[in-house]
C-alpha cells in the first residue's frame, strides 16, 4: 500500500512543477520605456554603407562588449537582421537564431520588428523568448528588448565611438543594400570667423 502514497506524491509534484513552469512562462512582460534620442552638437556627415561593412562593425562592437560573457552571439545583415548563438540543449549544441526587420524611428534610432525565432528546427513563441533574452542575455546597454510589443529597440544615438562620435540612422533598406547614417563629430568650441 505504501507505493500508492509515493505514486500520488509524484503525481502532485509533477503537477506543481508544470503549474510553476506555466506561471513563469505566461507572466505578462513589462513594456520598456524608450529613451529620447540624444543629440550631439558638432559637424555632421552623411555616411553611406552596405551590409558587408556594417556586419564587420557590429560584430567587432559586440565582441568587445561581451568578451567575458559565457554566451557569445553574432549578428549579420541579409534580407533581415539575424542574431545567432549556440545553446546547449540536453548536452548538445543547437543553433538559436532570431531575425528582425529593421525600421528607422524618429531621432535616428532603430527598432527591430517582426521577430522570428528558432531553436534548431523548432519555431519558438516570440514573447516568451524575448522575455527570456531580456532577462538573461548579455546585451549592450543601448539594446532594449520589449517583449510586450515584440520588438527590440537599438538606441544608436546613445552609442559613443572614439572621441564622442555619435551615429544616427537615416535609412536602412536591406533588400537594396542601402544603409545611410549621420555621423556627428562633436566640437568643443565654435570656430572663429
Low-confidence stretches: none
On the 0 to 100 scale, the average pLDDT is 82
* N→C terminal distance: 99 Å
Measured as a percent range, the helix fraction is: 25-40%
- The global form is elongated
Number of domains: 1
Structural class: alpha+beta
Radius of gyration over C-alpha positions, nearest whole angstrom = 22 Å
**Major β-sheet profile:** 7 strands, antiparallel
Number of strands: 11
Instruction: Report the order of strands and helices.
Output: HEHEEEEEHEEEEE
Total DSSP helices: 3
Note the beta-strand portion. Answer: 35-45%
Keywords: Membrane, Transmembrane, Transmembrane helix
Pfam families: DUF2140 (PF09911)
InterPro entries: DUF2140
Amino acid at each position: 500500500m505504501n507505493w500508492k502514497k509515493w505514486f500520488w506524491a509524484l503525481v502532485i509534484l509533477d503537477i506543481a512543477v508544470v503549474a510553476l513552469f506555466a506561471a513563469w512562462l505566461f507572466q505578462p512582460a513589462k513594456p520598456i520605456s524608450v529613451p529620447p534620442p540624444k543629440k550631439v552638437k558638432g559637424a555632421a556627415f552623411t555616411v553611406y554603407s552596405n551590409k558587408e561593412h556594417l556586419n564587420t562593425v557590429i560584430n567587432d562592437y559586440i565582441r568587445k562588449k561581451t568578451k567575458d560573457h559565457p554566451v557569445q552571439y553574432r549578428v549579420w545583415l541579409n534580407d533581415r537582421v539575424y542574431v545567432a548563438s549556440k545553446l546547449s540543449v540536453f548536452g548538445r549544441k543547437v543553433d538559436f537564431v532570431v531575425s528582425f526587420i529593421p525600421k528607422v524611428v524618429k531621432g535616428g534610432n532603430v527598432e527591430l520588428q517582426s521577430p522570428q525565432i528558432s531553436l534548431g528546427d523548432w519555431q519558438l513563441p516570440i514573447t516568451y523568448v524575448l522575455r527570456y533574452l531580456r532577462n538573461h542575455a548579455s546585451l549592450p546597454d543601448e539594446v532594449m528588448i520589449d517583449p510586450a510589443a515584440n520588438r527590440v529597440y537599438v538606441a544608436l544615438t546613445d552609442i559613443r565611438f572614439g572621441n564622442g562620435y555619435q551615429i544616427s540612422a537615416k535609412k536602412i533598406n536591406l533588400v537594396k543594400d542601402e544603409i545611410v547614417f549621420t555621423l556627428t563629430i562633436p566640437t568643443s568650441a565654435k570656430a572663429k570667423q
